[in-house]
Write a structure and sequence with these properties.
By secondary structure, the chain is α+β, with helices and mostly antiparallel strands. Among the domains are: about 130 residues, Serine Threonine Protein Phosphatase 5, Tetratricopeptide repeat (Alpha Horseshoe), CATH 1.25.40; about 120 residues, Cathepsin D, subunit A, domain 1, CATH 2.40.70.10. The protein has 14 helices and eleven strands. Strands 3-4-9-5-8-7 form a six-stranded mixed beta barrel. A three-stranded antiparallel sheet has the order 1-11-10, with no helix packed on it. InterPro entries: Peptidase_aspartic_dom_sf, Retropepsin-like_bacterial, TPR-like_helical_dom_sf. Pfam families: Asp_protease_2 (PF13650), TPR_19 (PF14559).
Amino acid sequence: MRLAPVLALTLAAFAAGFYASEYRHSTRPQSNPAVITNYSAAEAVASAAPQLPAEADADISPVPLPSYSSASALTPLEQATRWVATGNYGQAVQLLEQLLQSDPQLAEAMRLLARVYEEQGQHEKAVATWFRYFNAETDAQKIDVGLQYLANYLVRLASNPVVFGERQAWLKQQLNDLIRLTPDNGELHLRLASMHLDEKDKELAQYHALMAANQVNTRARAEALLLLISGDGLNNVASGEEVIIGLQRFGKQFLVPVTIDGFSARLLLDTGASISGLTATFVERHYSLVRNTKPIKLNTASGSVDTYLFVVNSVTLESLEFTQHMLARLPMDNANQFDGLLGVDILGRFEFFIDQEKAELHLRKR
C-alpha cells in the first residue's frame, strides 16, 4: 500500500515545520523584563513615608487595559504594582483609574492609587482617594494601617508651608474629617491646635490641645501649648498646695458642687471626659452663659454629634477659681440629676485622687 509512505512524508513535514517554529520563537528577543516579586500594594502602605515629591508633569497617552492569556502573566493590578515599583507612575495611574471605573469598590486599587498620587505631588487627589479607600476596605487591620499612614501624611503636609502654606483651610478640613475616624489621635489634635493658635482662635486651639493632652505621646507638648494659650487658669493656688473638695454621692459616682459665673451647678466627676461641659437643659435655663460659640464635633458613646464650645468668665470649686474657662454644650438632658461633667481638662492640671469612703476629691497643683 502507498498509504504508509505518504503518511511518513506528512509526519516528517509537520515535524520540520514545528521545530522551525520553535527555533524562531526561542531566538526572538524578549520584550518584557523579569517580574518584580518583592513589592506589593500592602507594603507600599506600610512602608516609611517618602519625602514630598515634585508635581509630575508627564503627559502620557491613555493605555488600554492589558489582556493576558498566559497562566503566568500579570493581572492588571499586579501590572500596576509593577509599574509603580519601576517608577512608571503615568501608566500606573491610568491603569488604576480604569480598574476603578470598572469596579469602584476595588480597595487595593484605591490604596495603590493614593500612594501614586502622593508620589506625583497630587496631594488633594491622594487624600480624597484615601478617604474613598476607608469606605471600601473591609479588612480592619488594613484600615488601621491606612488611617495611621494618612494621619502622618497630613501632619507632614501641614508642617511644610512651602507645599501647602496657602491651603490651610483645606488642610484643616481634612484633619477634622480624619479625627472623626480616629478621635484619639493626639498628633492630629496637636496640629489643629497649633493651626488655630496661629489664626488667633484660642477657643478651638484650647479644645484641640485638651484632646491631645489626653494621649500619652502628646501630653507634654499639649500641656505646654495650653500654658501658652491661656496659662493654667488658676489665680489663687500655689504649686504643691493641696485642696480638698467635698463630693456628693450619686450612686457609685460623685457630683462636684461648682459655681459658673455665679450660677450653682452639680457636675458629674468623670475622669474619662476630655472636656468639661454643661447639659443642654442647664444651658437652656442659663443661656446668658453662652458667648462666642465655636461649633465642634463631639465624640460620644453614641457616635459623633454636632455641638459647640463657649467660654465662661469663671468656674469655681471651693477655693479654686478657673478664669476664662472653656466648656462644651453636652447633648444630655439630665435636669433633675446633674448639670454637666467635670473632666480631665480641669482634673489634669492636678495630681488628684478620690477618697471614696469620705467622698472627697483631693487636688494638688502640679
